[in-house]
Write a structure and sequence with these properties.
Elements lengths: L38 H6 L3 E3 L5 E3 H6 L3 E7 L7 H15 L7 E7 L7 H10 L6 E4 L3 H10 L13 E6 L4 E6 L4 H12 L7
Parallel strand pairs: 3-4, 4-5
Antiparallel strand pairs: 1-2, 3-6, 6-7
C-alpha cells in the first residue's frame, strides 16, 4: 500500500453534536478560567474511562488537559491494521523520549470494551513496550462509545475501526490527523509540529 500521510487541521467546534462518521472535531481551548471550564473541557467532558492498570480516568481532566495527545482506536485481539499502527505508536513513543507523560500522551481507545479488560490491555501494551504516558483505555460500552463519537471514531463493527491517528494540542487548540499506516517518520514529523505549537500571544 502506498504510504500517504493525511494531514488535516480539524474543524473548530462551534456548537452542536458531531456526527459519528465525520472527521474528529475539537474546540480551540479558549476562554478558560479557574472557575470556568474551557470549550475543550465542555466538548470532551470528564466522562470516565478505565486504563490498563484498572484506574478510572476522567477523559478531559486526566488525559487531555494541557497536553498534546496522540489518539487512536483499536482492539486487543485485532490481527490486522491495529498491529502496524501500534508499532508506529511505539516509534512515536521512542521519538518523544522524556516528553511522553510530561508534554504528551498516547491514548489508545478500545472499540471492543466488553472484551478488552484492563488485563487484556496491559498484556497488549507490553507487546509494544508501552511506557508511562501511554494509556490503553476501556470502560463501559456507553462511555467508550460517547468518547469515540466525540472523536469521530465510532464504528458499529470493531473490524471497521478507523486507521487514523489524531494529534491534538490542548494548550493551543491545534488538531491534526494522520493515516496510521503511513511511514513512522512522517507521522513523527506531524506529532512534533503539534507538540511544538505555541499559543498565540495576545
Amino acid at each position: 500500500m502506498k504510504s500517504i500521510l493525511l494531514v488535516t487541521l480539524l474543524v473548530l467546534f462551534l456548537g452542536g453534536a458531531v456526527a459519528a462518521q465525520e472527521p474528529a472535531a475539537a474546540p480551540a481551548n479558549t476562554g478558560a478560567t479557574k472557575d470556568t471550564p474551557s470549550s475543550a473541557a465542555k466538548y470532551f467532558t470528564d466522562i470516565e474511562l478505565v486504563n490498563q492498570n484498572g484506574e478510572k480516568m476522567r477523559f478531559y481532566s486526566d488525559l487531555l488537559q494541557g497536553k498534546t495527545v496522540i489518539i487512536n482506536s483499536f482492539f486487543a485481539t485485532c490481527q490486522g491494521s491495529c498491529l502496524p499502527i501500534t508499532r508506529n505508536l511505539e516509534k512515536i513513543q521512542e521519538a518523544l523520549g522524556d516528553r511522553l507523560g510530561k508534554d504528551a500522551r498516547i491514548i489508545s481507545i478500545s472499540v471492543d470494551p466488553t472484551v478488552d479488560t484492563p488485563g487484556e490491555l496491559m498484556a497488549f501494551g507490553k507487546k509494544f513496550h508501552a511506557r508511562p504516558g501511554w494509556y490503553f483505555l476501556t470502560g463501559s460500552k456507553e462511555n467508550v462509545e460517547f468518547v469515540l463519537k466525540k472523536l469521530g471514531q465510532f464504528v458499529e463493527n470493531k473490524q471497521d475501526h478507523y486507521n487514523i491517528i489524531i494529534v491534538g494540542n490542548d494548550r493551543t487548540g491545534l488538531w491534526k490527523k494522520a493515516f496510521g499506516l503511513a511511514q513512522s517518520e512522517e507521522i513523527i514529523k506531524l506529532v512534533d509540529s503539534v507538540v511544538n505549537d505555541k499559543p498565540v500571544q495576545d
